[in-house]
Amino acid sequence: MSLPSILPRHDGATIAYRRLAGRSPGVVFLSGFRSDMTGTKASFLEEYCRRRGLAYVRFDYFGHGISSGDLALGTIGRWVEDTVAVLDALTEGQQILVGSSMGGWIMLLAALARTKRIHALVGVAAAPDFTEDLLWSRLDAAQRKECCETGTITLPSKYDLRGYTFPLGLFEDGRRHLVMRAEIPLLCPVRLLHSLLDDAVPWQTSLRLAEHLASRDVVVTLVKDGDHRLSSEADLVRLAAALDELVRPDQRSD
After folding, report:
1. Active-site residue among 60, 82, 129, 198?
2. Partner of 128 for a Cys bridge, out of 81, 82, 105, 119, CB 3.0 to 4.6 A?
3. What is the pLDDT of residue 8?
4. pTM of the model
5. Is 101 among the residues known to form the active site?
């Protein structure tokens, strides 16, 4: 496989990306925290778009994958800026944003920043406001004190034996980007996929998100099997079906 292309940022940072030419609506994949554009869903979507002749972009946020930057300095706001930069520089016309886990939060914020460019949204175990609702709210007094005094807190993770370290700045910045405290003024179609067995982001999060969205075209699909990543063959078929429903009829596969 060829090396990814590079999008330079105004501050000297670089975003690594892969882009597939095609027609609109294009698809942009937004990965989760500590994930990158080489994941199963990101790769699957490229093949999905190739078969249908759709444009597609996958990329690594600041501090992720092979983009530049230190993950410890990354914030929700920074990753939203990366996403908007990708939309502005690497896409044309209407776009479908597919956000996985944290990417579901980034997806909402990017859509709010570029509303007229958004054809639809697809959340896969979307985790809006996760820093506040799923992390900070679960810390006890001692852990919160440790985070405030040392600047970081390390929590257990099934995906890394060393645990995940979260900087205080991530929590502080996250509070400036919370979306589930009021109605989310997005009117585009939205599809939300979530596993009932998700042990990282409760499936009720997708139901709450559906309630907060202003759009009347919101469908939540709850999967009895599966896990947080929703990347099994059956899960990918389900993701493709959701996208097929959102792509204009004249561009759907036979």
Report:
1. 198
2. 105
3. 98
4. 0.95
5. yes
